[in-house]
TrEMBL record:
GO biological process, one term: protein ubiquitination
RCC repeat spans: 137-189, 190-241, 242-293, 295-350
Name recorded for this polypeptide: HECT domain-containing protein
Species in which this protein is naturally found: Pygocentrus nattereri
Annotated TM spans: none
Gene Ontology terms: cellular component: cytoplasm
Domain HECT intervals: 694-992
Statement: the UniProt record of this protein carries the keyword Transferase: yes
Amino acid sequence: MFCYWGDDVRAGFGLVKPDGVKKTTSGVFFCSPKSRIKQLAPGKGLVGFVRGEGNVSVIRVPPAGGLQCGRLKNLELKDKIRLMSCGETQAVLLTYAGRSFWMDKHNHCRPIKELSSWNVIQVVCGDQHCMALTQDGHLFTWGQNSSGQLGLGKGEPSFLSPQPLKSLCGIPLAQICAGGDHSFALSLSGSVFGWGRNSAGQLGLGDTEDRYIPACVNSLTFKKTVFISCGEEHTATLSKGGTVFTFGSGRYGQLGHNSFRDERRPCVVGALWGSEVSQITCGRHHTLALVGSSKTIYSFGCGEQGQLGNGQRTDQCVPFPVHLPPDANHDQSVEQIVAGGNLSFVLCSQQEADNSSVHPESNRGRGILTLGDRMIDRWISECDSNQWRTIKKEIKRVFSSEACLNASFLKKSCDEHYQTSTSFSGLDMESVRAAVKRLAQKEKVLLEVGKIVEKDLLPSLGSTAVGAEALRVYLILPEILRVLNKRLHETKLTVELASALLKLNPSMLQALVKYWSELSDDFLKPLVKLFHKPSAHFVSQRTFNRQAESSDGHLQNLVHVLQMLYKVSCSGKRKITSGDFVIYEINVLFEILQTVYNNMQLNRYPGPVALANKQYLECTLALLNSTPCIFNLEAKCNLLKLRQVRTCFRLVLRRSALLEDCFAQLRTANQTALKGWLQVVYSEKFEETDVNKRDFFLNVFRTLLEPESKMFIYNDTKTLIWFPAEPSLQEESYFLFGCLCGLAFYNNSVVNLPFPLALFKKLVGIQPTLEDLTELSPVLGRSLQYVLDYSDEDVDCLDMTFKIIWDNKEVELDPNESGKVVTSSNKKEFVDAYVDYTMNKSVERVFEEFKRGFYKVCAQNVVQFFQPEELRGVMVGTEEYDWSILKKNATYEELFYARHPTIVSLWEVFDGLSEKDKKAFLLFLTGFDRVPILGMNQVKMRVRPLLNSTEDHLPQALTCHSLLELPMYQTKRTLEAKLKEALYHKRGFWEE
């Protein structure tokens, strides 16, 4: 049965004889055409009928009050038509084979040649513009662009031929829709994009500004939208479960909100709430909704031409049922409702249909191609048959399209993919991995996939798509490339992927990083390996091959992606370690560069080849300078040495005024001078004597850190220090102290700097935590953790407020609320405020002076290469003493050798020393009593005879060379006595 109502038209539209048309008292006409109507396509001045056998008839419908309705005309087309969409005077037709035709105002049809090579699956028309969606997810628009309805950008002209809409490239679209002068697209996961005319808010964006490119209707995010219909100036959407939203012009009541005002944002049609609407459709100024379970059609909006089907010709702002013929309510099921112009239509059938979740093909169209198990199984089983040519075409359609891949592998359980956002991909990664594993079962298929990915997909990536769903391809591709790289042993695909990633606009790239952070280690670790392997390859290639300079951009992109992944791996407890990111080939690069430096120092006038080689290697390092994660600690220390200026910074000091002279010269030194090699000179009685800088640092820090200096406060165990909240010294003292610490770091000198890790975190811009406060004050830290761990119902019994005592000072942690009580709801706020005050606010002025002094000497970008633990280790050293390594690495000069009696006695005496005496020996030998961060291997002890010495002489040491000068004692007992005496003798800078 075919029902219609609205504008006066030819009886039955000419589908049946006039006497075959009946009319209800409410003005609904109904008839039973001999040929089944498969699809109705009403436009502003045109109605099309697609018959069951694929034939098409059209009839011209003039505006209300215009000329008489035209005659029904059959279109002469050889192709069978599946879908049709009508505009004001024109139409677009779509065949079963995916070919598209244009019908002009004279009913003449011609193929749309620009779409001839595309398999089109959906077509829609606005008043004067059209859209077409292809099987591989590309969207084309053409026609009038007066209000931006083509979505091609502001200032773009109208186009007679289809133009690709690039801004939606990669979004897996489920439906396209056009209104008068506005357009919509709906993604598979329910994202709604609108563009074009917005004079009444019909785009649902909260304003009335026209949009010239697609904009996401954020108000409909997570609403599980499954269908959109557009009127001339209003829009309706249907959510899974049957909720209807409308927005735009409400002038005729077509929004159904019991008012005649416009709505700029989507609002639920309250009268239909809970009715489980199964279909919606918009006419020019009216709306229809079908509740399939009850076979009830509701109408609202303009009724001037009777298009509401209620027997009235008045506007209606609340949905009311349409009075259908009795047969429609009893013997038949409502198959399809359609509104267009000032007309309304219903198609009924004898067959029962589950209308609760079905949308007619005319509205829904076919979906874009997706990759599934059946398709993969067919490829694998038939690839060796005569079907291979067809399979190759299918592989190309799927794997050349971002949209098709993004539409595959969705998390459909519990409709999870409808929650897709910039923090949730909606992608089932286990399904992705399983699919790739199945593809790999047949190498022929896998290699064809690789060919298409390389040739078509990767070059198209890096778009500025407006929706998060476009990012899924960047999660799918690594799984494909991981398997392909194993088979092909190539890295170029990964290189192209890295380049595409970095072409994404910043907000999309940030969303992708968020997706990475949600990956399990099983997926994140292979992702790291995917980018790590070619990075190492390019570093090695550049180190040994001067012709590899063309790889500069590739290398920079790869390590940039690695650095982003490193930050992701640090954001949670992961099995991935920092070692998974380190490129050890960089250490080889440093070794070669150091050899070049050494050779150049031997040759006062190095030739152009040597200079060019040096410049090339330094350029390679410069490519990597923004990615600390690929440097291990040894490489970072080597990088620090390279940054040192080859000039000298000379400190001339009096023994009696050590700090006074030191601070005076630091105060006046310029930044460039401080970056030179430090030389410390002792001056007295018109004589100058060089002093080893390690001895200088040892003694100057010992003086500064004495409690009598009052520069710092000590913790309860007197093992760690922190800045005072109310310093008794001038703030400049902390600036100069910072300069001294910077000099020690810059000159690779281990110093006694017993600060908690919090200091080194703050230097590299990382906020201290409760764990850091606990290191400084274990009792306080445990107490605060106890508060956090306390059961909520018992916290109120602690009788605590936000008032604390710190450094003998009473402080309100919340100055806006004096005496604020700690409760179960704000206990974390209390602990966070406590940590923030003690570690940050209380020491802000003093620490900033220290930091300013430190960075006057050290380049901030170099320091931030180090992790806080590494920075502390470089400056303070470690206590991982391995004396066997010291002994193993010792070398002997002149008369000494490993089995020399004096050397044998030396090590026998050393083995018998206490741990305290061994540390004193290390201090005597090197100038510091802690192990360098890179381990005891860094201490290269040398031993030689002390010439012209007697049994009365003490051993001597040149700390800058780790050189021990040892008299040839006759007995082991004498050696032991003299060595112990030397270890605690006045030495270095203070030696009289």
